[in-house]
Amino acid sequence: MATLLTKAEDRAAVTAHAARLQHVSKSFATPAGRQLVLDDISLDVAPGEFVTLLGASGCGKSTLLNLVAGLDAPSAGAIETPGGRPALMFQEHALFPWLTAGKNIELALRLRGVERAARRPEAERLLELVRLGGAYGKRVHELSGGMRQRVALARALAQDSELLLMDEPFAALDAITRDVLHDELTRIWRETNVSVLFVTHNVREAVRLAQRVVLLSSRPGRVAREWTVDIEQPRRIEDAAVAELSVEITEELRGEIRRHGRH
Length: 263
Prior knowledge:
By secondary structure, the chain is α/β, with parallel strands linked by helices. The protein is built from eight helices and nine strands.
């Protein structure tokens, strides 16, 4: 069986983009009429690229991620994910508590069609990748919050998707654990060459992780501005260059909030 790394690299060589959004809009029915949440979003994520999607609460970031994941359909426009269905990682780990760490990962492998005999070795390889070697038999209640998120990441990677969607996966963690997982995610992204679309409202997190930061305006969400993050990896949250760009992006974010009357 080919490894996740080899498959991701093979796919990146033949696809022009991991995701393409063309003039995507989304509205929902409300008692007061239809509410426009996203308006005319056009965005590409290149193979192997790490993009953070940033904006104020309620701007439609998670809605956009759900559309890319195929959990909902846009009201207008088109979304392409040439490598197949993306993997999705939520803020909550969503692990099954009656299964061990390894069996949670094996479930994703089974759904992917991996043969029974190959599942445990692959689950153990993925646990090693997220630096949880030896945790295969541990139950969810035996794992810390950070360890649970590592297992959730390993389960997402088990889907062997070209595109990994992450919806504020570290928001509920303490600062030190979050800092460690930033390092781990950066390492895993570089080792696997997977494309990442990462939603956050934390400006410094966005700058620390991404090659490109995309700012959405307040509702309806539109692409307000993009920044290419030309800062060598690995980065630290306290690095001067990270702080400097974070200040610039924060000012732009505050301007968007003021322009749309949100406080």
